[in-house]
Amino acid sequence: MNVLEKIDTHPFYVEPFHVDFTGRIFMGILGNHLLNAAGNHSQKRGWGIGALNENHYTWVLSRLSIEMEEMPRQYEHAQVKTWVESVMKLFTNRNFAILRPDGTPYGYARSVWAMIDMETRKPCDLLSLYNGDILNYVVSPEENVCPIAGHGRFRFKDAQLVRTIDTYYSDVDINGHINSIKYIEHIMDLFPRERFEKQSIHRFEIAYKAESYMGDRLNFYVQPVDENETDVEVKKNESEVVCQAKICFR
Amino acid sequence: MNVLEKIDTHPFYVEPFHVDFTGRIFMGILGNHLLNAAGNHSQKRGWGIGALNENHYTWVLSRLSIEMEEMPRQYEHAQVKTWVESVMKLFTNRNFAILRPDGTPYGYARSVWAMIDMETRKPCDLLSLYNGDILNYVVSPEENVCPIAGHGRFRFKDAQLVRTIDTYYSDVDINGHINSIKYIEHIMDLFPRERFEKQSIHRFEIAYKAESYMGDRLNFYVQPVDENETDVEVKKNESEVVCQAKICFR
């Protein structure tokens, strides 16, 4: 199989209600396009959510790091290219390029996924699933580069509680979990209007640690790293970490 | 011009993150598809937002009423057909049919739009704009029926304040206003999980009365009409009505 057959292209269009007050696409909406591209890519190859659910497995997103030179703007047409960079026993690395119609990059993204057994919620061995079929689709960094840094580590020491929110109907997905995109929205909502007026987001990282459910109360803790970089930790029930994020403005 | 040239078809696909925990599309997401269909329809005919903005005019959504036999489900393909039913001096009525690929209806919608001068915020005379070009696109009820009731009237007497929310970055559109779709989300979020488990939404109506802005505090007042029907009024600054909605479960 040649490299092109391993990489999928997922076009998208920047709709009016998908941009912020500066006219740039919301980070959560961009994340949604990436997850759709990932879903389609695996679906077409027989290890998408639908096929897996029949076998009681599902993909779980663990990390997502997005780094943008520029955010697509209202009415622009763009495309996501996605491919599997590597597969380990319990995790797979999937990369993304977010491109203009002429092929020049808006930016790139990296993600880490695990596959879990839906009953036991325990991770499965990706290398043995479907006789390791997923390995046939690996595109090495030499074949297609993703020129952004890998996922960083989070260290929270003196994060301050800045907001508490209740979660409702619109926050949850078909599994009854607060959906991955909604966390991104709630995290972006921590920043004041002035921040987005003066700066744009250069890099966004999120690590999903635990599930939360409709009705859970979420606490948002903020830890500034420097004037452009902020770490955010989200906890439910005041103790359990649900997700952690890093937002780098420029 | 024949009727088919006056009606547009806008396909959509029900994405995983666009469905609720029952697997049905969120009302806000469906509303977004309708508004996109409306935008494309007018854009292609030369009186879309882009063309208008150059002339300092913009469309403002005043009413939206959606009535569904069934909500589209995850992974389903659907289409919106949209047409202008009538044009008055200050308002135009636009209808929608939400159809399955085989042409059978999921449901229908009605909407009312005004055009305003962006500087004075006053309504414009639609019949004189572009020499009344919009009249060339009217499809009468005899030519294409929209078999749902018109927009109702709201009467609030003893509505109870049930929630107060602050508005943030993700709530606002490119004009800096809380976006029409976000109101729908916040209104749906007033209902408990059990409601959506036992019932589905048959009809949703909303009347947009005034703009609100990022940072505005919104108060939600609920008035049950009967066991299936609830009216909701949204106010800012405790007095000014921003929008009113009716939700009919079945």
Describe, in plain words, how this protein is organized in 3D.
- Chain A is of the alpha+beta class and 250 residues long.
- Chain A folds into two domains: 3-137, Roll (Thiol Ester Dehydrase, Chain A); 160-249, Thiol Ester Dehydrase, Chain A (Roll), CATH 3.10.129.10.
- Chain A contains five helices and ten strands.
- The first copy, chain A, has helices at 3-6, 27-44, 49-54, 180-188, 193-198, and strands spanning 8-13, 57-68, 77-87, 92-99, 105-117, 160-166, 201-208, 217-224, 229-236, 240-249.
- In chain A, strands 1-3-4-5-2-7-10-9-8-6 form a ten-stranded antiparallel sheet.
- In chain A, helix 2 packs antiparallel against helix 4.
- The first copy, chain A, is globular and about 50 Å long.
- The model of chain A has no long low-confidence stretch (mean pLDDT 94).
- Chain A binds chain B through residues 15-17, 19-23, 26, 28, 32, 35-36, 39, 49-50, 74-75, 168-176, 179-181, 185-186, 188-189, 191, 193, 196, 214-215, and chain B through 15-17, 19-23, 26, 28, 32, 35-36, 39, 49-50, 74-75, 168-176, 179-181, 185-186, 188-189, 191, 193, 196, 214-215.
